[in-house]
Amino acid sequence: MREEIDKYEGGLEIFSRGYEKLGFNRSTTGVTYREWAPGAKSASLIGDFNNWNPNADVMTQNEFGVWEVFLPNNADGSSPIPHGSRVKIHMDTPTGIKDSIPAWIRFSVQAPGEIPYNGIYYDPPEEERYVFQHPRPKRPKSLRIYEAHVGMSSTEPKINTYAEFRDDVLPRIKMLGYNAVQLMAIQEHSYYASFGYHVTNFFAPSSRCGTPDDLKSLIDKAHELGLLVLMDIVHSHASNNVLDGLNMFDGTDGQYFHSGARGYHWMWDSRLFNYGSWEVLRFLLSNARWWLDEYKFDGFRFDGVTSMMYTHHGLQMAFTGNYDEYFGLATDVDAVVYLMLVNDLIHGLFPEAVTVGEDVSGMPTFGIPVQDGGVGFDYRLHMAVADKWIELLKKRDEDWQMGDIVHTLTNRRWSEKCVVYAESHDQALVGDKTIAFWLMDKDMYDFMALDRPSTPLIDRGIALHKMIRLITMGLGGEGYLNFMGNEFGHPEWIDFPRGEQHLPDGRVIPGNNNSYDKCRRRFDLGDAEYLRYHGMQQFDQAMQHLEDRYGFMTSQHQYISRKDEGDRVIVFERGDLVFVFNFHWTTSYSDYRVGCLKPGKYKVVLDSDSKLFGGFNRIDPDADYFSMEGMYDNRPNSFMLYTPCRTAVVYALVD
C-alpha cells in the first residue's frame, strides 16, 4: 500500500495533506470547495452566503467522484463566504435529495432548539487567529497522563470551556505532577453523552467548549507548562447520524464504510470504516495529520484498536495468546495496514509524537516500529489491570491472591511499553463504580470530614485506594494514566444530561431531566484540607513526584522478590527503589526482612500511612535502614523493617 501511495500520490507526506485540496480552501482569488461523493448525481454548495439557493453554486464532478466549485472573491476582495456563515452540500443521491455537512468541515455548531448541527465556514480575520507562542515539549522519558474531558471539567453543573480548562485545570494537572494531558471528546460529536466516541465531524473541534482558536490557546498554555497534549482520536468507528455525520453521506451505504452488516457495530450502534478504500485512507490519514499540524497536538490515544484489527471486533472473544487468533481469517488486514500507515506518518513527520493504542487482544508486533514490521505504536494501554482490580474489589480481602495481582500487572510483552491505569473514564460512567466507590460506598457521603469519626469502611477504602494506585504505577508499565478526579477518589459516577428515550417497542428509558449535576468534577473536594479526599490527592501527587525524582517506571531493573500468600506481602525492586506492600487486613509485621540488590543505607521516600495522606503515622519517616549481606529471597542483601497492615512503603538507597 505504501508503494502504491508513493506511485500514485507522490508519497505519504503529500497524500496526508488532503485538507489542502478537499473541503474549503481559501486562495488570494477566492474559495474552492471540493467533496468526494461518488454516489451523488448532482451537487451544489448552499449556505447563508447564497440564501441556500441550490442553483446558485453548482458543482462539477471529476472521474474520481470528487465534486468541485470555485467562488471568486467579492468585488472588494473579501471572501465570497463570510467567516462564521452556515454551509452545506446539497446533493441528489440514490436515496433522494440530501443536505449534508461537508465531510472535511473545520467547525460545526448546534443552533439553540435545533437537533442537526450546522457546518460553519471558519476563516477568521488574521488579527483574530490564535498564534502559537510556545514550542512543543520534548517527549518525557516516562509518560504520566491525566485523562480529561473539557466539557465536564468544571466544579459547577455546566459544560466547561476550553478557556476555563486552560486557566483552571491545566495548572492543577501541572501541580499534581503529571507531564501529559489526554483530551477526550475533541472531535465534534452531536450526542454529548457518547463521551466523544460517536464522532460526526472529524476535522472540527467540539463547539460546545468554544472555538478552534480557543482550543489552540489551551494547547499552547499546556506547552508553556511543559505538558504534552494527547488527543483521544476516534478512527475505529463513526456516528451513524445521517443528518450531520458521514453515514449515507452521498446517499450510499458504502462510501466511507463497509456496506451491509460488516459496516455496522451492533454493540456501539455505529458505522465501521472501510480501511481498504483509497479515499477513506486519505480522509483518516489527513485527519490525524490535521490535528498535529493545525492544533499542535503531541500525539494520540487511538480508541477501539481491537475493534479495528479483527472482523469480530473482539466481541465475545477470549484471546488465549494463540497466534492463529492474531494472524487468521478474522484479522482485518486493511485495518492493520492503516494503523501501520498512520503510525509511520506520525513518527515520520513528528519524531517526538506519542501514539498509544487501546488493544485488549495482545496483538504481537503492536509496539514494534513499522520499519521493523510492527504496527508501530509507542505504547499499548494495559487494560487488563483495571478489570482485575474490579474483580478483586468484589471479593473479600481474604480471597485476594498476591501472585494473581503481580501476574496481571507484569503480564506484558518483553520490551513493549505499556500505559497502565487502575481505572479510567470507563469505570466512572453511570452504571459502573470507581475504585473509591467500590471500596467506601455510601460512607463517602457522611464520613469524609476530618472532624467526624471515620468508619472501618472508610479506613479500609482510603488505605487500599492508595495501595492499588501505587502498585499499579510501580509494577504495571512504563506509563501511567489517571482519569480526572480519581486522584482524590471522586465520589459518584458520571451521568451525562439526558432526557427520556422512547424505544420502538414502546419501552421508555428514563432520563435524568437533562441534569449536569453528575457531569462535572468536584475538584473542591480534593482541595479541601478538612476532608479526607485531600490526603488521597496529596498521595497521588507524591506518587508522581516520586517517579519524577527516581525514574523508576523506565528503569531497566525490575525484580519481584516476594509475593507471600500467607503474609499477604509483595516486595519488588524497580530502579534503586524497594517497594513493600502489606495487603493483610489486620496483621502488621515487626522486624520483617526484605531482600534488596544493593548494599547500603535505605530511607523511606513514600509512605501511604503518613498522616499527610490520611494514614495513621505508624512508620518513623526519619529512620535509617541498613542492609545486611547474605542471600534472602534470592537477593544478595536485605534489611529489616516494620510493615503495618494495609500499607505501602517505598525505600530508596541513599548511601
Automatic annotation (TrEMBL):
A GO BP entry: starch biosynthetic process
Main location: plastid
Location of this chain's protein in the cell: Plastid, Amyloplast
Keyword Lyase carried by entry: no
GO molecular function: 1,4-alpha-glucan branching enzyme activity; cation binding; hydrolase activity, hydrolyzing O-glycosyl compounds
SUPFAM superfamilies per the UniProt record, alphabetical: (Trans)glycosidases, E set domains, Glycosyl hydrolase domain
EC nos: 2.4.1.18
Domain Glycosyl hydrolase family 13 catalytic: from-to ranges: 160-520
Catalytic activity: Transfers a segment of a (1->4)-alpha-D-glucan chain to a primary hydroxy group in a similar glucan chain
Active site positions: D303, E358
Gene3D superfamilies in alphabetical order: Glycosidases, Golgi alpha-mannosidase II, Immunoglobulins
Domain of life: Eukaryota
Homology family: Belongs to the glycosyl hydrolase 13 family. GlgB subfamily.
Designated name of the protein: 1,4-alpha-glucan branching enzyme
Lineage of source species: Eukaryota, Viridiplantae, Streptophyta, Embryophyta, Tracheophyta
